[in-house]
Amino acid sequence: MNQLLSSPRLMPALLVTACLGALGTALASQYWGGLYPCVLCIYQRYAYGIAMALAALAFLAAAGPLRRRLALAGSGLAFLGGSAIAVFHVGVEQKWWEGTADCQGSALPEGATVEQLREILMNQQFAACDAVAWELFGVSIAGYNVLACAFLAALSFWAAVKRGAA
């Protein structure tokens, strides 16, 4: 058991698994749960994708401990970025500040007929960044993502500096 815990590939594998779980949950909630993501939700997914790619590089860098440590640190930075985006998203949901320009949706074309505008609006899949689509115990998905990304960032940085990563 102790040998398993000191394996240099264990933590990168766990980080990749966590990213796959988070992205899988996000996609399942979108396509099966009907929770269409806003642009800030999409940005948070990018952070998971980058962190996952770097953790996969750390997993594959068995011959290079320095490369593994750098990839794990990069994964931690990606998670920190995801946590920062999630904090911003929570602020937008709570109306503490305005969202980005992309949070407003696309502009409607000038000179369009009422029927064309109706068609555009009925077929546009847009979620407002300031609307909480789902919450549990008063905490939104973005709020939980703040915690998840911060935890995974700490785990990544710990794995990058711990002795077993060498």
Describe this structure in words.
Strands 1-2 form a two-stranded antiparallel ribbon. The protein is elongated. Strand 1 (135-136) and strand 2 (139-140) form a beta hairpin. The relative contact order is 0.18. The chain has 166 residues and is mainly α. Helix 2 (10-31) packs antiparallel against helix 6 and helix 4 (65-93) packs antiparallel against helix 6. The model has no long low-confidence stretch (mean pLDDT 83). It has six helices and two strands; from the N terminus they run αααααββα. The chain has helices at residues 2-5, 10-31, 39-60, 65-93, 114-123, 141-161; strands at residues 135-136, 139-140.
The mean pLDDT is: 83
The residue fraction in helices comes out at 55-70%
Measured on Cα atoms, how large is the radius of gyration?
Answer: 19 Å
Strand order of the largest sheet: 1-2
List the main descriptive attributes of the protein structure presented here.
mainly alpha; elongated; 2 strands; 166 residues
Topology:
Elements: H1 2-5, H2 10-31, H3 39-60, H4 65-93, H5 114-123, E1 135-136, E2 139-140, H6 141-161
Antiparallel strand pairs: 1-2
Helix pairs in contact: 2-3, 2-6, 3-4, 3-6, 4-6
Describe, in short, the structure shown.
The chain is an all-alpha fold and 166 residues long.
